[in-house]
Amino acid sequence: MRQHLLKRTIAVLLAFLAYQAAELIAILPGSLHLAYATMSGVILVILLFSFLIGWLWRMQRRFQAGMQPPDATTPAFSWAKIRGALPGIVIMIVVQVIGSIMVNRGIVPNSGNEVAIDDLMRSSRVVMLLIVNVAAPLVEELIFRGLLMNVAFKERNRFSDIFNIILSTVAFAIVHGPTNLFDFVIYAGLGFALALTYVRTRDVRYGMVMHIINNLVASL
User: Fold this and answer.
1) Rounded to whole angstroms, what are the CA distances from 171 to 82, 163, 184?
2) What is the mean pLDDT of residues 138-152?
């Protein structure tokens, strides 16, 4: 059991490091103001993240193998899964609305993560839009839901689900670099919505769609 846990934990850490490396390499042409930086960056995003997403998808399938009960095998679109995703969707909307109101009214500043993204947008706008609105949501759902929530337990029950939701929520919030308690609560709220959705649907694709929509709305 300990060896199983150690191997999977190392795999999650390596996956996250690979994600960070892919982001860094993709924005490098724009950061260095190279010729054809946008075209080079877009090509790098497509190549690097296609490979990374494919690798993570296969890995999360291996993580899920042997889990009891297994992930749902029903088609991606089913009313049962949609009903399962509804609480997470509502929570995500509430978190997004509260965060927007607080920032727009000047009650709290933009998070450090948002400021860093805005800075990178100036030199690599198209590349960052692709990463933030497409690549990052797909990769983060595979890492924080598909992998991380299948690390510690093989048996899925109320205790393991609660543990995995807390683990995924806290990890998701921390890696987004909150600079104050409000930032942490907002990122944790989104992480909770996505983790809850995975537990209720047993289908990481619902979290992917929700995460993409959330980031697209935040980018407007």
Assistant:
1) 26, 12, 11
2) 95
Q: Does residue 195 register a pLDDT over 80? A: yes
Please indicate, yes or no, whether the overall pTM of this predicted structure exceeds 0.90.
yes
The token duo for 49 is 């993240």
Q: Which of 2, 1, 10 is nearest to 147 (CA)?
A: 10
| Confidence at 1, pLDDT banded by 50, 70, 90 | low
- 29-42 confidence digits (pLDDT tens): 998 888 889 999 99
**DSSP per residue, the chain:** -HHHHHHHHHHHHHHHHHHHHHHHHHHHHHHTT-TTHHHHHHHHHHHHHHHHHHHHHHHHHHHHTT-BSPPP-S-SS-HHHHHHHHHHHHHHHHHHHHHHHHHHTTSSPPPHHHHHHHHHHHHHHHHHHHIIIIIHHHHHHIIIIIIGGGSS-SB-SHHHHHHHHHHHHHHHHHHT--SSHHHHHHHHHHHHHHHHHHHHH--HHHHHHHHHHHHHHHH-
pLDDT of residue 215: 94
Q: Give dist(CA 176, CA 152) in Å, integer.
A: 22
Angle between helices 2-31 and 112-130 (to 10 degrees): 80
Query: Which own/partner contact pairs does 37-44 have at CB distance under 8 Å and 24+ positions apart?
Result: 37/123, 37/124, 38/124, 38/125, 38/126, 38/127, 41/124, 41/126, 41/127, 42/126, 42/127, 42/130, 44/127
Cis peptide before 75 (omega within 30 of 0): no
